[in-house]
Amino acid sequence: MPDKKSVLILCTGNSARSQMAEGLLRDLAGDRFDVFSAGTKPGTVRSEAITAMREIGIDISTHRSKSVDEFVGHPINYVITVCDTAAESCPVFPATTARLHWPFEDPPPASAGEQASLPVFRKVREQIKARFITALASGELP
């Protein structure tokens, strides 16, 4: 597709929700969008996110947490914030960049352990997937 739109999915740590969202949107509409994710305070990709995505056939094991600063100045068509903290501290993008805010539940911290937190990762994964399906079907993400 010659004129792919670019989508930057933003969260605080770029370790869970934004990583899963990046993998999901690539899987659902990678032919239409160049998809990236970043964090306002990047950490490391959570193993639970990798496991939850692997369960539905999407491999994000090679993803790395990136700073939103890596994308400032790049042409981005859509910025989707998936947590309130990122929405509040999102850098300013050009007026031509559409901003969408889709807050999803913050998964438990890594200290909770994979067995305790994996069900939440699965639930959030399914919520993100449903939100993308709706946005793609409605034209919110054309």
Question: Which characteristics define this entry?
Answer:
142 residues, alpha/beta, Rossmann fold, 4 strands, 37% helix, globular
List the helices and strands and how they pair.
Elements: E1 5-11, H1 17-29, E2 33-39, H2 47-54, E3 78-81, H3 84-89, E4 98-101, H4 114-138
Parallel strand pairs: 1-2, 1-3, 3-4
Explained architecture:
This protein has one domain: Rossmann fold. It has helices spanning 17-29, 47-54, 84-89, 114-138, and strands at residues 5-11, 33-39, 78-81, 98-101. It is built from four helices and four strands. The two termini are 13 Å apart. By secondary structure, it is of the alpha/beta class.
N-to-C span: 13 Å
Question: What's the overall geometry?
Answer: globular
Strand arrangement within the widest β-sheet reads 2-1-3-4
In terms of quaternary structure, the protein is single chain
The CATH superfamily turns out to be: Response regulator
| Named CATH topology | Rossmann fold
**What's the CATH class, please?**
Alpha Beta
Roughly how many Å is the radius of gyration? 14 Å
How many strand units? 4
- Output the structural class: alpha/beta
The CATH architecture classification is 3-Layer(aba) Sandwich
Structurally, how many domains make up the residues? 1
Helical proportion?
25-40%
**Discrete helix count:** 4
Major sheet:
4 strands, parallel
